[in-house]
Amino acid sequence: MKRIALPLKARSLPGPGHAEVWLTDLTALPIDFSEPRHTRRQALARRRLRQQFILRLLLGAYLGCPGKDVELVRTARGKPVLAGRWANSPLAFSVSNADEWLAVAVARGAAVGVDIEIQRPLPRAVRLARRFLSVPEAEWLNTLDEPLRSRQFLRQWTAREALVKARGSALAVSLGALELDWQPARIRRLPPDWPGTGRWTLSPLLLPARLIGSLALDQPDHRAELLWLTVDLGRD
Q1: Which of 65, 70, 135, 188 has the largest count of CB atoms under 10 Å?
Q2: Across the chain, what does the average pLDDT equal?
């Protein structure tokens, strides 16, 4: 994973079939909005401010403008998209967060989706699989022991979330019609209103710490480059 330190310089958009995935530990960045965190709600609000700050900073680097000038709106299904003078930009992006970790995927002219989760024990992994995954996936997970079962459920889950984010669909509507292979997760069946299976690519992300993640791109082949946004290139 390549480390890139603040302040960010202007960047070119990734080429066709290429996605850049930025990973950031928000607690390691010198961002202070001077807001006390007396309650959980205040802490979550401050985290959202930090996430928005970094997202706009990254998008501004590709658009060639300060982050504060990046205009964003949300679709009816909650997907953030560029607006205003950037509405017709070929820049496509997707955002995911897990605790203080933030992931932002960027691509050119192709729908992109990213999802990350913290690895953790899931005592109800089998029940969750039966509810949210396809029957073959749930049966396979039921044959696994912990902690592998929880870890593999999260891999299948992030793959689904990445696809749904890329498509801009409602998760609840898409889950029942999505079927994936495993080790690694690959597309077996998509909802009937989606473009053909051959157009979509899924890939696991090799992330640090206790993170699990997946990237989806509406292109038959893609290459993902992981970039870690840091303060000091010499810092571990």
Answers
A1: 70
A2: 88
Closest listed residue to residue 137, CA positions, set 76, 79, 187, 198 = 187
Return the ∠ at Cα 206 (arms to 205 and 208), rounded to 5°. Answer: 120
Q: Provide the token pair at 84.
A: 């205003």
Those residues whose C-beta lies under 8 Å from the C-beta of residue 72, and which sit 6 or more positions away, are: 55, 56, 80, 81, 82, 83
Handedness of CA 76, 80, 86, 92 (dihedral sign): negative
For helices 148-167 and 135-142, angle between their N-to-C axes, nearest 10 degrees = 160
Identify which of 158, 156, 160, 170 has the alpha carbon closest to the alpha carbon of residue 126: 156
Whole-number Å distance between alpha carbons of 102 and 99: 8
pLDDT in tens, 130-148: 998 999 999 999 999 999 9
Confidence (pTM): 0.90
Please give the C-alpha separations between residue 203 and each of 35, 157, 166, 200, in angstroms, as whole numbers: 38, 13, 13, 10
Tokens of 65: 């403008």
What tokens appear for 175 in the block? 């889950």
